From TrEMBL:
InterPro entries: M3A_DCP, MetalloPept_cat_dom_sf, Neurolysin/TOP_dom2, Neurolysin/TOP_N, OpdA_N, Pept_M3A_M3B, Pept_M3A_M3B_dom. This is oligopeptidase A. Residues 1-22 form the signal peptide. Binds 1 zinc ion. Pfam families: Peptidase_M3, TOP_N. CDD domains: M3A_DCP. The lineage of its organism: Bacteria, Pseudomonadati, Pseudomonadota, Gammaproteobacteria, Alteromonadales. Its cofactor is Zn(2+). Residues 268-717 form the Peptidase M3A/M3B catalytic domain. The keyword Signal applies. Its EC number is 3.4.24.70. Belongs to the peptidase M3 family. Coiled coil: none annotated. Keywords: Hydrolase, Metal-binding, Metalloprotease, Protease, Signal, Zinc.
């Protein structure tokens, strides 16, 4: 159930991590209701079990938006019947008849949310957004009926406090704690009046989260800059070709479209010599949700913060961040802020150095300007060339998207013993012609592990950014299930017949998201709840995989020139490695500004917050350099305002980066380097396969032999290490 709740952004996600519930025994009277519901909906493909090869796959070719609302309603009704059957079981509560039962129910709704997620993220439309806005409060009310089911919670509590708990396996004990903790932290212990208000707040939040997301997507779709040939100066030909294709797709053949997405904005700001256009593109991107029109998100943010604060006060917490971090690695907002306070001074000090270098070049060229945020990438690239003789566009010629995919497969083969074979087109249904599918097997035994779907290109209706998800996870409690994993990106597609070239940063992101897929594919757990993530830990595995992009084995085999096919010259590789800490001031500061603001939003009385004023005042107090802005400014900060997955938890990327840097040093010092067999075996065993079946801190200690040290992060970024 975790996936479906993440998709709708419901506040009670953590409460229902374990509420994928079990089949109901035929002796229970609710079973009849369940069967009738399903029988009435047999003509709805969204409700049907996955069918076809590979243990059944989503029938993406049969998706019909008109069927979504009735599918959601039928699946919710079915799950509520299952929950009632579990809650009213006359037998004494046991792990089997309560916790395991909760693991198996809601399977129909899980399937419906596979399709819901595709409509929401990959092929969105105004029609879908209307349905999402209508259903969000209904889905929240549905979740509240589960979390506030007193009989159900009493049974969960009884198992958690029973003598039986001591006899269970470590994984079973952990999921029992997760399920109990989820209910207790989400209002199960409140009195009836407080429960009602809690449920009402969740419904209001669900509506606001959906509205926030829709507003951002509207601005991403509506703000496109169309250029003429005379406005292309400085842009690489590969980018020009992609911009031409994007314009043609939007009915503007002969022009060049700079779309309002990072994958289009970033290279334009890096290379375009048209400063006024750079400013326009920059403002389009960073003012999403902040344009004073019907899609403005400032009032939405205020309402979200007010409701979150009221909700956690019902539970007895001082602020939202205190509640959110209680069951995460950081434990408290003070601990999270302490980590950032250690890194922040070094980051902004480095920005001052970077700006000085850029300003010197601008002055030397007679530009007669002061470096502004829309200049940072442009002049940073000039500094890169000046300091390291490194041209990002030259590097890009060796970063072909297809080759990078094969590089990822190579790494997966070396570390995880996985083999990827593309399945025949048409044998597995897909939701867009760009989507391709690979079967994943164990290289040694030939054992089938699962499928990997790839949707790499940007298009209208697809949300920005990059992400990974699963349509089915590995479990063994009710028969062994394979994995259906997916990676999704927003690369600007090259014209037909030409390779899609991407930046080094985008290549790192490609590896990053594949790390999430490997986390899914390598899972070796019994229960669905073991796949629930700890947010300040789950980014660690994917961040770590980025390190293999710079290994000699990958560079020598897969980073070949798009025209000549020759490997990247050693001189160019040396320049890339030498510049590894280049621009770390910018990248660290823009990220940390967002992470710090996230915590400030969720530790401050919302009555005192006017989003734009609050953002400006707090960043000024922090000494935020004027040449850099938050990576995600408040009005388009979807991580924390379009749902609650990362709310008060965006710091988690930095927390995970400490683990990443420390783990990378374990590989770097091993005899076999980044492909060392012993360290790789520990990586898979303790850091990937266990998912959340083990406490993350314990898992890391088993891998490393000690806790992670923050000094590794400082060394990684070229910042001074202070004792």
């Amino acid at each position: 159930m975790q996936l479906k709740l993440t998709l709708i952004g419901v506040a009670v996600a953590t409460a229902l991590l374990g509420c994928s519930q079990a089949p109901v025994e035929s002796t229970n009277t609710n079973t009849t209701a369940k069967v009738e519901i399903v029988d009435k909906a047999t003509d709805n493909p969204l409700l049907a079990p996955f069918s076809g090869p590979y243990q059944g796959v989503p029938q993406f070719d049969k998706m019909d938006l008109a069927q979504l609302k009735p599918a959601l309603e039928a699946a919710m009704a079915e799950q509520l019947a299952e929950v009632e059957a579990i809650a009213n079981n006359p037998e004494q509560p046991t792990f089997a008849n309560t916790i395991v039962a909760l693991e198996g129910a809601g399977k129909t709704l899980d399937r419906v949310f596979t399709y819901y997620g595709i409509w929401g993220s990959n092929v969105s439309s105004p029609e879908f957004r209307e349905i999402r806005n209508e259903m969000a409060p209904k889905l929240s009310a549905f979740n509240s009926k589960i979390t506030q089911n007193s009989k159900l919670f009493a049974r969960v509590k009884a198992v958690y406090e029973s003598e039986e708990l001591k006899t269970l396996t470590p994984e079973e004990q952990r999921i029992t704690w997760i399920v109990y903790n989820g209910f207790a932290r989400n209002g199960a212990t409140l009195d009836d009046a407080a429960k009602k208000r809690y449920a009402d707040i969740n419904q209001e939040l669900a509506t606001l989260h959906a509205k926030f997301s829709s507003n951002v997507l509207a601005d991403e779709e509506n703000y496109v800059v169309f250029l003429t040939k005379e406005q292309l100066s400085g842009l690489p030909q590969s980018f020009i070709d992609s911009a031409a294709a994007a314009a043609k797709e939007r009915g503007k053949e002969g022009q060049y479209a700079i779309t309002n997405s990072r994958s289009s904005m970033d290279p334009f700001l890096t290379y375009s010599t048209e400063r006024a256009l750079r400013e326009q593109v920059w403002k389009n991107y960073y003012e999403r949700g902040n344009n004073g029109d019907e899609h403005d998100n400032n009032a939405v943010i205020k309402a979200i913060l007010k409701l979150r604060h009221e909700r956690v006060q019902l539970l007895g917490y001082e602020n939202y961040a205190q509640w959110r971090l209680e069951d995460r690695m950081a434990k408290t907002p003070e601990n999270a802020m302490a980590l950032m306070n250690k890194v922040w001074p070094a980051a902004i000090a480095r920005v001052k150095e970077e700006v000085a270098d850029m300003q010197a070049i601008a002055d030397k060229e007679g530009a007669n300007i002061k470096i502004e945020p829309w200049d940072y990438r442009f002049y940073s690239e000039k500094v890169r060339k000046d300091k390291y003789d490194l041209d990002s566009n030259e590097v890009k010629q060796y970063l072909q998207l297809d080759n990078l995919r094969e590089a990822m497969f190579y790494v997966a083969g070396r570390l995880f013993n996985f083999d990827f074979t593309e399945v025949a087109k048409g044998s597995v249904p897909v939701f867009h012609e760009d989507v391709r599918v690979w079967e994943v097997k164990d290289k040694t035994t030939g054992k089938h592990i699962g499928l990997w779907y790839l949707d790499p290109f940007a298009r209208k209706g697809k949300r920005s950014g990059a992400w990974a998800t699963t349509y089915r996870s590995h479990t063994t409690y009710d028969g062994v299930t394979n994995v259906l994993s997916s990676n999704n990106s927003n690369f600007v597609k090259a014209p037909e017949g030409k390779p899609t070239l991407i930046s080094w940063s985008d290549a790192e992101t490609y590896f990053h998201e594949f790390g999430h897929a490997l986390h899914f594919l390598s899972a070796d757990v019994k229960y669905p709840t073991s796949h629930s993530g700890v947010r300040d830990y789950t980014e660690f595995q994917s961040q770590l995989l980025e390190r293999w992009l710079l290994t000699d084995e990958v560079i020598d085999q897969f980073l070949v020139h798009q025209e000549t096919g020759k490997p990247m010259p050693k001189e160019l590789v040396a320049k890339i490695k030498a510049s590894a800490t280049f621009n770390q001031g910018f990248s660290t500061t823009e990220y940390m500004a967002s992470a710090i603001m996230d915590l400030l939003y969720h530790t401050t009385d919302p009555a005192k917050i006017e989003p734009q004023q609050f953002e400006k005042e707090q960043l000024t107090k922090l000494g935020m350099p004027s040449e850099v802005v938050m990576r995600h400014r408040s009005t388009h900060f979807g991580h924390i305002f379009s749902g609650e997955g990362y709310s008060a938890g965006y710091y988690g990327y930095l927390w995970a980066e400490v683990l990443t840097s420390d783990a990378a040093e374990a590989f770097a010092s091993a005899p076999g380097g980044f492909y060392d067999k012993d360290v790789s075996a520990r990586l898979v065993k303790y850091l990937f396969s266990v998912r959340n079946a083990m406490d993350p801190a314990e898992a890391y200690r088993l891998f490393r032999g000690r806790d992670a040290e923050v000094d590794a992060l400082m060394r990684d970024r070229g910042f001074p290490v202070t004792k």
